[in-house]
Amino acid sequence: MKEPNQGFCLWLMGLSASGKTTLAGLLKEALGQRGLRVEVLDGEVMRSTISRGLGFSRGDRETHLRRLASVAKQLIGPQIVVVVAAICPFQHIREEVRAEIGEFVEVYLDCPVEVCIERDPKGLYAKALAGEIDNFTGINHPFEPPVRPDIVVRTAEETPAASLSRILQGLEALKRIPGPLGL
Fold first, then answer.
1. Which residues pair with 83 in a beta bridge?
2. Torsion from C-alpha of 90, 148, 70, 120, nearest 10 degrees
3. Fewer CB atoms inside 10 A, N or C side of the chain?
4. Cβ 140 vs Cβ 128: under 8 Å
């Protein structure tokens, strides 16, 4: 790892239905098996707590992401990895949260909007396409692909297990986590 026992934030970002929540759960288990404590902050879940009352305007989204970054920064500690799963649609806010948190790894879940629409587990894309949801990222609200993500997974082309493996290999290469045998 960068420093012995150094914790960090692993920020999973991508469109709704790109696989963020699924991968956050898999990462919690896999990193836990390597002796790390993992805290997961799911952007959608956190909207009902620290961001209750915020909408989906650009300003409200940015406020929500700043709050997630603040909580993540407070949770990071020795051998503690904080996994944040949030859409995070704007490059400038990604740069801001990276600077705020410091120990930060950005993982982009690259998944075409067409595939996300097909998956649509909560029916949100259908509602946005029908005009029932305003400011829905990827439909009637912009998503800026990241400029320099640390790790990219293509969740439309690979299984969740393959994406997990790619993320773990990336974290090993970045010297953020030890290898599977502690190497």
1. 10, 40
2. 50
3. C
4. yes
In a 3-state reduction of DSSP, which class is residue 137? Answer: strand
pLDDT value at residue 1? 45
CA angle 111, 166, 92 (to 5 degrees): 55
| Least trusted range by pLDDT, from 47-51, 103-107, 108-112, 160-164 | 47-51
4 vs 54: CA distance, rounded Å: 38
* Single pTM value for the model: 0.91
- β strands within 86-177, DSSP E: 104-109, 151-153
**Which amino acid is located at 123 in the chain?**
G
Cβ-contact 137, 41 below 8 angstroms: no
Q: Which residue has the tokens 């010297």?
A: 175
**Structure tokens given for 164:** 């997990």
Give CA–CA dist 152/146, Å, rounded. 10
8-173 is classed CATH 3.40.640.10: no
Domain ranges of the chain: 8-173
Q: Which of 95, 36, 47 is nearest to 71 (CA)?
A: 47
